[in-house]
Design a protein that fits this description.
The chain is an alpha/beta fold and 499 residues long. It has 15 helices and 17 strands. The strands form 3 sheets. A 9-stranded mixed β-sheet has the order 16-15-14-13-7-12-11-8-17, with helices on both faces. A 6-stranded parallel β-sheet has the order 3-2-1-4-5-6, sandwiched between helices. The structure holds 6-O-phosphono-beta-D-glucopyranose (BG6).
Length: 499
């Protein structure tokens, strides 16, 4: 690596962000555009250096070009402010090394000394199979130790591929870093509307009294995508929807919906409450796990007028793969607030549209006062927290249709994020990057949280594996999911909301 032409006085405010795997998609699509957006709004510490670390034979200039293009292509606000962008890129440097090569970490250490800031954020933007090696080499090279300032590390999901690998990744991380230096990134927690769940629940008096088993019939948490696996089948075919989003995003949404109010709003108190929810989820094994879940795989179909191939025909999917691209589960949170209220979680690829929402369905009125077409049986009150798109909150109510007859129809009372605050909510990475630079871990997953989420998920995976299916139920791309999922709800005399 050429000498960096910098010779700074040590700066207590400045930060160096070391991006391992800077040549990959994450850096270009998410990290750099988010850093740029934060810089544009004057929110970044000064000075901020970006040190990319990866195997490809790139120059500093090449890395800057790729990152610049990332901002042009994926930046949220246009036109791009060139002065801000170039200001960031002037302080971006590249270290070429494989992740195993100790000498590369020596070069990284030298680069960090040259930029001369006291604080370092390590960002693992590599495929997860490199996490352990990188953490180990950070430790061997003593990059984590510092006399002054701080060292933190960001780890992207997936945190392990099962309970055992998650625990061993944690052991590895803890052998080099303290828990309070580790920021496990689940980007769902950075979404404005996900944080709004807490504001909505704990910043308003009127809903809390209703937020329990007395008034809530059930809860549906949906994360639907119209996209298929795209170019990620190499990873996805070993993960499936259960590891890809159930273990993390869906369970995170569940904890935020079900948790008790924390004593104070800080990282420890919030995460303590979330962990309690996970501990209260009734764990099921074997037959019970099979009865309470459905999994399926998409076959070719039509989405938005376009024919799309079957999962098994996507590039990099193994022949005869039985990886699920859809799952739903019925979970019970066995505590005083929720006992007896089913939480239905579902997620799938190649569903008709991209929708993430939490729907709280309230119990019905006790008497059908208004005759046959009583709202109570046909369209009960539902509160829908829409995470994306059309971010907002809608309450479905019954109202009298004008006219002589006492006819009740469902109507909507709606809060729309864009109308109320103007514009799209910021990108999750912007908030999360800033939080780890500022040392606020509230929106990151703590080690015991990950472990509890895995414990629960692992039981389902084990039951599915023991089933030894050769083929999964299928659903046509562009439909609501497998028929079995409809039957699953009908058995409970309930219905999925339409995607
Ligand atoms: C990722 C999953 O964590 O979340 C992807 O790995 C999924 O499979 C993505 O597509 C969805 O994120 P978002 O923010 O688009 O809902």
């Amino acid at each position: 690596m050429p000498e960096l032409e910098i010779n700074n006085e040590p700066c207590s405010e400045g930060v160096a962000i070391v991006i391992f795997g800077v040549t990959g998609d994450l850096a270009r699509r998410k990290l750099m555009p988010s850093l740029y957006e934060n810089a544009r709004q004057g929110r970044l510490p000064e000075p901020l250096y970006i040190i990319g670390f990866a195997r490809r034979s790139w120059s500093h200039e090449k890395m800057r070009d790729v990152l610049r293009q990332g901002v042009m292509d994926y930046g949220r606000t246009k036109p791009v402010d060139e002065e801000v962008l170039e200001g960031l890129l002037d302080r971006a440097f590249y270290v070429e090394s494989t992740f195993q090569d100790e000498a590369g970490y020596g070069r990284l250490k030298k680069a960090l000394e040259q930029v001369g800031v006291q604080n370092t954020l390590f960002y693992l933007a590599t495929p997860p199979n490199w996490y352990s090696t990188i953490v180990e080499n950070i430790g061997v090279s003593q990059l984590e130790s510092c006399q002054q300032g701080w060292r933190r590390i960001v780890v992207e999901k997936p945190f392990g591929r099962d309970l055992e690998t998650a625990q061993s990744l944690d052991d590895k991380l803890h052998s080099v870093f303290h828990e309070d230096q580790i920021y496990r990134m689940d980007h769902y927690l950075g979404k404005e509307t996900v944080q709004n769940i807490l504001a909505f629940r704990f910043g308003n008096g009127i809903f809390e009294p209703l937020w329990n088993r007395k008034y809530i019939d059930h809860i549906q948490i949906t994360m639907a995508e119209d996209e298929g696996v795209g170019t990620r089948a190499g990873y996805y075919d070993h993960a499936g929807v259960i590891r890809d989003v159930f273990q993390n995003h869906l369970l995170q949404l569940l904890t935020l919906t079900a948790m008790e109010a924390p004593a104070v709003f800080n990282a420890k108190a919030v995460r303590d409450e979330k962990v309690k929810v996970l501990k209260s989820v009734c764990e099921f094994t074997g037959e019970k796990a099979i009865e309470n879940t459905i999994r399926a795989q998409y076959v070719s179909g039509t989405i938005n007028g376009k024919r799309v191939p079957s999962y098994r025909d996507e590039p990099d999917v193994a022949d005869g793969s039985i990886t699920e691209t859809y799952m739903c589960a019925r979970l019970s949170v066995n505590n005083w607030r929720w006992a007896g209220v089913p939480f239905y979680l579902r997620s799938g690829k190649r569903l008709p549209s991209r929708v993430t929402e939490i729907a709280i369905q309230f119990t019905q009125v006790p008497l059908a006062l208004f005759g046959q077409r009583n709202l109570a049986s046909e369209a009960p009150n539902v509160l829908v927290i829409r995470i994306q798109p059309d971010e907002g909150i809608t309450l479905f109510l019954g109202a009298k249709v004008p006219g002589n007859a006492m006819r009740i129809e469902p109507v909507e009372m709606r809060f729309n994020y864009a109308d109320a605050f103007g514009g799209e909510p910021p990108e999750a990475y912007e908030r999360l990057l800033l939080d780890c630079l500022q040392g606020d871990a509230t929106l990151f997953t703590r080690s015991d949280e990950v472990e509890e989420a895995w414990r629960l998920t692992q039981r389902i995976i084990d039951a599915w594996e023991a089933q030894g299916l050769k083929n999964l139920p299928v659903y046509e791309a562009g439909t609501q999911g497998p028929h079995a999922a409809e039957d699953f709800m009908q058995k409970d005399k309930r219905q999925w909301r339409e995607i």
